[in-house]
Amino acid sequence: METQQNFTEAIARIYKCTGVKTQTALGKVLGLKQSSVCYGFQAETIPYRWLYILLRDRNINPVWILHGEPHKRYVIPSETTELEVETTC
Q1: Domain residue limits, the chain
Q2: Which end of the chain is more exposed for a tag (fewer CB within 10 A), N or C?
Q3: What is the reported pLDDT for 79?
């Protein structure tokens, strides 16, 4: 599914946009136990639940987390039914 490099890059993007540097701090941001975060690291995969939480709570684009640029970092709902994006983290 994901390669180790893709996982490492995705985690780096999550850390960058959340401002955390440890698994424990990431767990707090996600509202999860550190053991749940540790499982993701051991499996070298980003669980869909993490992506959903980051989108819901911080408007962080899940596609950007997984694939990086050229995708935009934030998803911002507009007054219309379409989505606009912001490029700053």
Answers
A1: 4-86
A2: N
A3: 45
Residues 6 or more apart in contact with residue 69 via CB below 8 angstroms: none
14 SS3 class:
helix
Please state which CATH number belongs to domain 4-86.
Answer: 1.10.260.40
pLDDT tier, 86 (very low <50, low <70, confident <90, very high otherwise): low
Those residues whose C-beta lies under 8 Å from the C-beta of residue 21, and which sit 6 or more positions away, are 15
| Residue type, position 84, single letter | E
pTM over 0.85: no
Q: What is the 3-state secondary structure (H, E, C) of 28-75?
A: HHHCCCHHHHHHHHHHCCCCHHHHHHHHHHHCECHHHHHHCCCCCCEE
d(CA 64, CA 13): 8
